[in-house]
């Protein structure tokens, strides 16, 4: 699965081919993830803390009988939360049997991106540790940071 997620931004599509992404805010920045991996988006749920979990693991939630770990990307990326509490969402992802959620400040929209508008990470970040980033997309006058969710979940 990891190879197909990476290939999506590294040449398996022609330059004019499109992908759909879910865009969201984390702190002051805009991020996006491939919609094919998004299972659902929920309001903040009751999160149960897990003893001795890593700092960025907020805890787990019970979502229709499934126990799902919740990752706080603010803590993982060292970002300050922004926005109103009622706008915060949990975006739930699924990769094969692996399910997890991330807390975001606000989900903004679903967008279609043309492959030609996505800069590969290596061209943008040469000296920065950016293993969680697949690329940077240009959308009009905005920049969206495309996250590699599988790498985030694996770490």
Structure overview:
The chain is mainly β and 155 residues long. 14% of the residues lie in helices and 48% in strands. The chain has four helices and eleven strands; from the N terminus they run αβββββαββββαββα. It has helices spanning 2-7, 73-77, 121-124, 149-154; strands at residues 18-26, 29-34, 38-43, 57-63, 66-72, 89-95, 98-104, 106-114, 118-120, 133-139, 142-147. The chain has a six-stranded mixed beta sheet with strand order 8-1-2-11-10-9. The chain has a five-stranded mixed beta sheet with strand order 3-6-7-5-4. Strand 10 (133-139) and strand 11 form a beta hairpin. It is globular, with a radius of gyration of 15 Å.
Q: How can the largest sheet be summarized?
A: 6 strands, mixed
Low-pLDDT residue spans: 1-13
Structural class: mainly beta
* β-strand amount: over 45%
Beta-strand segment tally: 11
Helix content: 10-25%
What topology does this entry show?
Elements: H1 2-7, E1 18-26, E2 29-34, E3 38-43, E4 57-63, E5 66-72, H2 73-77, E6 89-95, E7 98-104, E8 106-114, E9 118-120, H3 121-124, E10 133-139, E11 142-147, H4 149-154
Parallel strand pairs: 2-11, 5-7
Antiparallel strand pairs: 1-2, 1-8, 3-6, 4-5, 6-7, 9-10, 10-11
What's the gist of this structure?
This protein is mostly beta strands and 155 residues long. Helix content is 14%, strand content 48%. The strands form two sheets. The chain has a six-stranded mixed beta sheet. The chain has a five-stranded mixed beta sheet with strand order 3-6-7-5-4.
């Amino acid at each position: 699965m990891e190879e197909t997620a990476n290939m999506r931004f590294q040449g398996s599509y022609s330059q004019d081919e499109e992908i759909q992404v879910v865009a969201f805010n984390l702190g002051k920045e805009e991020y996006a993830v491939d919609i094919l991996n998004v299972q659902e988006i929920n309001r903040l749920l009751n999160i149960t803390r897990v003893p001795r979990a890593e700092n960025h693991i907020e805890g787990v939630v019970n979502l229709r009988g499934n126990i799902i770990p919740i990752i706080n990307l603010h803590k993982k990326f060292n970002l300050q939360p922004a926005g109103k509490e009622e706008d915060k969402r949990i975006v739930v992802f699924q990769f094969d049997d692996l399910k997890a959620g991330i807390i975001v400040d606000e989900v903004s929209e679903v967008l279609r991106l043309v492959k030609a508008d996505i800069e590969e990470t290596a061209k943008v970040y040469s000296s920065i540790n950016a293993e969680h980033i697949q690329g940077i997309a240009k959308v009009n006058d905005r920049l969206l940071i495309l996250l590699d969710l599988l790498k985030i979940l694996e770490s």
